[in-house]
Design a protein that fits this description.
103 residues, alpha+beta, Conserved Hypothetical Protein Mth637, Chain: A, 6-stranded mixed sheet, 2 helices, 28% helix
Length: 103
Amino acid sequence: MINTILKESKDGVILDLHVIPNSNKFEFGDINVWRNQLKVKVHSPATKGKANDELLEKLSSTLGLDIKLISGSKSRNKRILVKETSIEELTEKLREIISNQEK
């Protein structure tokens, strides 16, 4: 099911997210199969780019990969470019992170 939120790109993999600001902590949620988006909760409010900054910082450090926001800077629906990776590698990393988070 993770493959539904990922799209191959010449520069890496595009990841579709639905971001929920003002949460208790940063964490991954479930996959919305209708929107093909992974829910991600961030602690920061959605003002002055704070939620975006937290999202990019935490996502990059959690995945251990370079990322870039390519659309949705003023929306909860975001597209992230995860640079220099494959769908297979990113799928494995996301599965591991979500699995460890559930424990």
